[in-house]
Amino acid sequence: MSVSVPQGLATVVGSSHVITDPDILAGCSTDHTGRYRGRASALVRPGSADQVAAVLRLCRDAGAHVTVQGGRTSLVAGTVPENDDVLLSTERLCAVGDVDTVERRIGVGAGATLAAVQRAATFAGLVFGVDLSARDTATVGGMASTNAGGLRTVRYGNMSEQIVGLDVALPDGSVLRRHSLVRHDNSGYDLPALFVGAEGTLGVITAVDLRLYPAASHRVTAVCGFDDLEALVDAGRVLRDVEGIAALELIDGRAVALSAEHLGVGAPVAGDWLLLVELAADWDQVGRLGDLLAGVALRGSPAVGIDVAARQRLWRTRESLAEVLGVYGPPLKFDVSLPLSAIGGFARDAVALVRGLVDDALPVLFGHVGEGNLHLNVLRCPLDAEPVLYTAMMDLIAGSGGNVSSEHGVGSRKRPYLGMSREAADIATMRTIKAALDPTGYLNAAVLFD
């Protein structure tokens, strides 16, 4: 990179917001899991959409690659630079606007954390439809760029269903602003949909307008134990379609055992597999939940939480997994989407595959069973075993009728496998769009396309 690029960046954002310290850059060039590392020459922190656009224009003209970073919670190396890049951080774009309680929406900067959005919504008596365990660090811009799902997807859907407007700095240095107060705007192309899920390859999302929802006055949470995974999936198939379903989470008993050992968070019920179910509505749901579970092949009675403290204790069973997965070092993560009918077979075959290739590895499975969006984590997997295991697992996922990515995106880690989920004409069309908006390919060049 030309020595003038950092100096040029400083004229755009101020010298205090351009960092070239090697130690800081090294830390920012390592992904969330700790498994993947890249290299960067500068970190820039613009404070507005216009500054983002100016940074992009400067880098494009200088021939410098740009990698966009939010909360850096990507699990597929989506924020790891590969070309001595300029890292563009959205951390200063963190404004949280006032809640519009009439239209039930809020405008926020791309660098605002999920937790900040949730606090604003709760204070206004509303809820935001997406929730993640990484809520304190995950940013709205990153969640939009990957079309994140999470713990409430079964009720509210992914990020694409929450976004009603956005600002995007385009690779040519212009800013697209698409906002409308009407609920349905069919005036021309649905451009926001083009950028949501594009993983920053088409532009940098700088702000979003988010849909909010009424808060339910009654909630009930239960954790149910199962001896058989197929029985749990059958229950999930029924429960995902019932009115008032708010969460439906599969939890591997092996993961719960780790949480009990290392965090003191024991399982509230016995079972090789656990299912967390939550109902939310404006009337009491306890009796209804009991009726729904009456015909389910459970192992013993479920643990039920009605008041806030009891429900939080049950949710701790699920949320503790994020804390315990790194107990043996950085885990190898597979984020997959499967037909519900394939989950049982995939789980068996995946365990056999992992243990056949890495003797000491520990596979654990959890995720959003209502949609078939699951997270397979392989603990105690050495780096030198990853290439063979990763390719074999991708083959297994594709052979099971699954998608190689469900809600974390493709990033750079899964780009060689995009063809397993998209036909050649599909990929060619995506490349055409990329070339139209970013002819030199300098923006998030390591992401999505091989």
UniProtKB/TrEMBL annotation:
UniProt keywords, alphabetically: FAD, Flavoprotein, Oxidoreductase
Cofactor: FAD
GO terms, molecular function: FAD binding; oxidoreductase activity
Bilayer-crossing regions: none
GO terms for biological process, alphabetical: respiratory electron transport chain
One Pfam family it belongs to: FAD-oxidase_C
Domain FAD-binding PCMH-type as annotated: residue spans: 36-215
Entry-linked InterPro entries: FAD-bd_oxidored_4_C, FAD-bd_PCMH, FAD-bd_PCMH-like_sf, FAD-bd_PCMH_sub1, FAD-bd_PCMH_sub2, FAD-linked_Oxase-like_C, FAD-oxidored/transferase_4, Oxid_FAD_bind_N
SUPFAM superfamilies xref list: FAD-binding/transporter-associated domain-like, FAD-linked oxidases, C-terminal domain
PANTHER family to which the protein is assigned, alphabetical: D-2-HYDROXYGLUTARATE DEHYDROGENASE, MITOCHONDRIAL
Family recorded in the similarity comment: Belongs to the FAD-binding oxidoreductase/transferase type 4 family.
Protein's name according to its UniProt entry: FAD-binding protein
